[in-house]
Amino acid sequence: QVRLVESGGGVVQTGGSLTLSCARSGTIFSVRTMAWYRQAPGKQRELVVRISSAGIVNYADSVKGRFTLSRDMAMNTVSLQMNRLKPEDTAVYYCNAVEATGADYWGQGTQVTVSS
Question: What are the mean pLDDT values of the chain's consecutive 10-residue runs (116 residues total)?
Fold first, then answer.
């Protein structure tokens, strides 16, 4: 079983930067994909970025060129560096993992607020 814990959210001004971290426990070989999603109030949860077990990274068009995902094997984490933040980026950000079995796991979420 995989357990995910997000951290790093906060309040920043437009154009600022923030780094989110997803701490993972469980067997890495059982994980098919990991991803960051976000959900603003009253809106659907949307995919921000996903990385496959093969290392292929896919970004949403809205964040491409501004957000960068990285894996920290030693720390057992997946991080999201967010640059040039916009008010539209304001949301609760969730870490997601899908096991090879098809089981789906979510973290508790971390709030990101970008002020104008």
Answer: 90 98 77 93 96 90 97 75 98 93 93 96
